Write the structure tokens for this entry.
Amino acid sequence: MHLLHLVHDHQRLLVKSDMVPLSATERTCLNALAQALGSSEDVRRDAPRVDTRLEVQLANCCAFEAALVRDISRGGFRVSTTLRARVGERLTLHARSEAQEEFLFPVRVVWHDGDALGLELIGMPTCTLRRAA
């Protein structure tokens, strides 16, 4: 399973759990996904990072900008980009898998340092299969 699928499925179940009780199967799946995305044994972080290099697009209300995901956790992404964003600003991270699935992750900027942004996952992500042109 692709790393984007793990983050997508974890976030969908996490958001669902805030709205309605999860079934036993869903709770088990959520726990397994959290474990797959890194246990909480790293005392410095609630959600340890998985290093990666993934080209994505970031969108705000006015622009699309290329970005490079440097690491992923069950809580969000660390990206490098030239997009200027303020802490608290809501963005959409657009990513594509090798299977041409398109992922849209709603995120909020939680920190910035030069060309690096820390993005927290918020809301329900989506995944669709891109149609051939």
